[in-house]
């Protein structure tokens, strides 16, 4: 295991005789400590990291193949490595190492010339006692760690390959509270212990698990073997160096009970409520007589200056509700169950702003001590706050190399309130007389280090009740960051919370949600989503994801509607929402929400990122007319945020641009051309393309790729004349530029043409056919009906031709009209021919012969009539057959033309 090296300290140069003399003097100085009495050993009582405070065991250890170490620990501050035991042998400094890590929340064991190690997660808290037992069997490498009566799990350590047996070699030197980088010395103050250790025991065997649980749970275990090392005779067994021995057994503090803190500055009720809230607590509300008496004892020590001579000195977290006629706990808004009103004066609530004060001074008579009295909320009293656990505040805005701690816990006692750094710092109040920084009339808050008092940061107090919470401007001196003035944020907000400028907390999801949640509105300040690095070039595309591969820009087109489908103009008009998304690894994004619309990027010319440039094309790469309705740049949350960086003043969630894309939304009205193929009109299916091409960068650098299916249609599919049958996205590169095209397939709603064109024109044809059923001698009616049908058919054709596109080729509807017109024309010709045959056919064609009863002329006339009747009958039979054959041919031709088009569309 690597340990931080530093210059050898003076302790390493002391010889054994000096240590023995120091041990003898320590025994003479503390003759009253008896061997059989339990003691606590307090290391680094003054808080200064030091290499001179330790216990050195005067004996030695035998060879160990099993061992159990139990101890009780009360940490006042953490160190980078919290050393419990360091045992070194000859040239091996870590023959046995037992230490804790507050940052990692784990216990570490190393032994046997670095050949075996183990790390186990535990719970480390400051300013409360905790008990540990750790048992190691080096034969099986099985380990048990028990904390406060609970097994933290059975573990098997890591064994490094090497020859020889695994054991703790005997005959070495053992220290408590310092880590040896060389046998007997090489101490480092950052690898030490600040706190109290009690009931230390080292056994040469593995204790049963139940005994370890009993030892760590403050219970009497069964009969134990005699330990190799314990604290029964500290001054006799150890060399005590700059450590304080306390003749008291370590208390049992397994629950970590809640406590109160009195802040000795008079303030309004709402200010007291705010102070408790920003520190992560609530205003004190005693729940029974014993808690009320304990609060009085605490308040009496700080009563001076907390009241106005009436005897009540503290605000309680109780306020009256005139509507409910009840006294409510302001934290939970529920009626309090316990009260201790002075002479029952709290039973009626007559004013809307009535709060409860606490008589916390011994100046009042005994019966009134600790009693409650109603007071106006605009009076000033001291604040009493209730905390379920040790309040921890964090300092944001310090540079990474700053010598100050980033976390602090509340210190209260003797009427003073301060904040101790978790590791090495102290944040304390300076009175005006001692304020040598020359700022403020109310004193200042001074941040410094125990071991480096010249390194300071000072905050001038703006009022007697000013605490260094929230956002403030500090003055630095001698810090490695080298800053004069800088803003720091002191907050008690935890994970998933945002710190308002006044110190209060709101959920991090409510940051920049377009709704003010902080009392000062600071949660909606500084809501810029996009952050560009220095030297960002918006003309250059984002870095390629891989060498040689283009940057992908995902395209998705949402078609809102097709506004017009103009056959005569060979174009269509559509409403689109085009979404382009891409990753830019150069940028960072902040406070992204799951709801994409809340992540709008407000563009300014000098802060705009690179964005792809689009151009729209129709069929055959014809230019489209584009009218932009709206353009919006968003950021999409696609990953978890980066680890929190406490150098930032705000707890903003920061996201990498390489994992979270920028999204450009454009709402457009596009008019584009389409090369209609009308051969099968009105039974046609049209395929139109709307191409999107990226300009400015060739496809070697930027590639347009579809996102998911690439296109979604939301509008009505049934248009006036056509039905949108399908939509899809296909590649549509334009030369050296990358593109995609939306391919739309429209099917003609031919029912209109069937009912308005085909059926009427067919009826007219049928009417023309029906003249063959008129009497043969009624030529005028027959010819007039046929001619009228022909004229009406021609009028239909003219009208239809004016409403559909004019093409050089015949369309199916044209073929139909040609058939109908020709059919009626033939009917007219046939009727005229039949009438000619009936009246004027030459006799040579008739081959008629006379008889005795009739003349030759009569025979010719009869033959003419018969031939005309036969021809009329023939027309009656032939016309339906020819019409049927045409219909079969017509439908077959439509299918043969249309089916290949559908096949090509499906293949594409």
Automatic annotation (TrEMBL):
Matching SMART domains: CLECT, LDLa, PTX
Record has Nucleotide-binding as a keyword: no
This protein's GO CC annotations: membrane
Annotated GO MF terms: extracellular ligand-gated monoatomic ion channel activity; transmembrane signaling receptor activity
Span of domain Pentraxin (PTX): 37-252
Disulfide bonds: 493-505, 500-518, 512-527
Domain C-type lectin as annotated: residue spans: 254-386
Protein name: Uncharacterized protein
